[in-house]
Design a protein that fits this description.
The chain is α/β, with parallel strands linked by helices. Helix content is 40%, strand content 19%. The strands form two sheets. Strands 2-1-3-12-11-4-5-10-8-9 form a ten-stranded mixed beta sheet, with helices on both faces. Strands 6-7 form a two-stranded antiparallel ribbon. The structure holds nicotinamide-adenine-dinucleotide (NAD).
Length: 355
């Protein structure tokens, strides 16, 4: 079968890491008898340069016509001084909303072979970290009404959630927990925020449909602490857009490297947007130092969530595990290792060989 993938290579290291992921997809395709066809579209800084806007309509239409979307990363200092509506990030928020991608899934796993890179104390990291965060992606304060008073001296943003928006992401989290260790931690600020009280109430109602899954609540301030104190306690976390944004970066760091972590954004259809959690790393763009693993693992998530190709997804994940266990490292995960760091192309080749 042929799968049509829209490629949003973006800026900085985006093009290098997306090309690595495509090579890996093609290799898996050869092994299992699938083909992938790729159509590149502009988004972010490269789109601003070429068309004057971060998310051209042609890109939205192309993504909507594809079976799934693979994204590198967008942004960089060149576009930092542009007004808000013209910033590369506007493209990201816009494409998520245009594709109706309300669930952002971010797994955070501590690889035993990289435990030394984790900033956690050894007795804490030894218990392992294997959690997946479900962050609501197209509601809450990032999409609520915002503005300034006439004198410009007061500003406001609005956190607003409907029961419908909470229900659909809660269902996604509980379904995932059923396939894992059967525990959902819902994170909110229900002691202060009314929107959080509705969040909690709604999650509890959804939980009744999943009696085999344990459901617990945690306040966001406590969660920030627990993620570094005892991350092994978490299986599936479900939370709002802004809390998920902050906590998922924290969770990613306990695993040691931002260059390893993938993400998936999905909605009601099988078409999703798959991207590494890191940014465009302008400081290393063009040097070959980019770690392609987060994007390669994002492609594996695409196989799993968009195309239901579980075996093929695992094949990629096992190849990555094998390469890391064999001691191969890019510069960002070198730590105390005495290995000679591989560049992006060399790391990709090691993974292709394993597949
Ligand atoms: P960043 O994630 O790009 O970089 C942070 C640090 O991690 C840098 O030192 C970088 O070299 C390193 N790093 C990141 N990915 C790496 C990889 N794959 N391999 C090796 N090292 C890696 O974050 P930043 O510096 O805060 O942001 C840079 C630009 O990226 C900004 O313009 C920001 O707006 C944008 N950004 C985009 C996204 C996205 O497209 N989803 C997400 C975050 C930041």
């Amino acid at each position: 079968m042929n799968y049509r993938i829209a490629l949003l290579r973006g800026d900085g290291i985006g093009p290098e890491i997306v090309d690595s992921a495509c090579q890996v997809l093609d290799k898996v395709g050869q092994k299992y008898g699938h083909t992938f066809s790729y159509t590149p579209y502009l988004m972010g800084g490269c789109a601003i340069d070429a068309t004057g806007e971060p998310l051209p309509q042609e890109t939205v239409d192309g993504c909507l016509a594809s079976d799934s979307v693979l994204l590198g990363a967008v942004g960089g200092p060149k576009w930092d001084t542009l007004p808000g509506h013209l910033r590369p990030e506007k493209g990201l928020l816009g494409i998520r909303a245009a594709l109706g991608l309300y669930t952002n899934i971010r797994p955070a796993r501590l690889y035993p072979s990289l435990a030394a890179e984790s900033p956690l104390r050894a007795d804490i990291s030894a218990k392992g970290v294997d959690l997946v965060m479900f962050r609501e992606l197209i509601g809450g304060i990032y999409f609520g009404e915002r503005g300034r008073t006439d004198d410009g001296k007061t500003a406001y943003d609005t956190e607003k959630y409907s029961a419908f928006e909470i229900e659909r992401i809660a269902h996604a989290a509980f379904r995932s927990a059923r396939l894992r260790r059967k525990k959902v931690t819902s994170i909110d600020k229900a002691n202060v925020l009314e929107s959080s009280r509705l969040w909690r109430e709604t999650v509890h109602k959804v939980a009744q449909d999943y009696p085999d899954v344990v459901c617990e609540d945690m306040l966001v301030d406590n969660a920030a602490m627990q993620l570094v104190k005892n991350p092994a306690q978490f299986d599936v976390i479900v939370t709002s857009n802004i809390f998920g944004d902050i906590l998922s970066d924290e969770a990613s760091q306990v695993t040691g490297s931002i260059g390893l972590l993938p993400s998936a954004s999905i909605g009601d259809s099988t078409r999703g947007l798959f991207e590494p959690i890191h940014g465009s790393a302008p400081d290393i763009a063009g040097t070959g130092k980019a770690n392609p693993i987060a994007t390669i693992l994002s492609a594996a998530m695409m196989l799993r969530y968009s195309f239901s190709l579980e075996e093929e997804a695992r094949c990629i994940e096992q190849a990555v595990d094998g390469v890391l266990e064999a001691g191969y490292r890019t510069g960002d995960i070198l730590g105390a290792s005495k290995a000679i760091p591989l560049n992006c192309t060399e790391m990709t080749e090691k993974i292709l060989e394993r597949i």
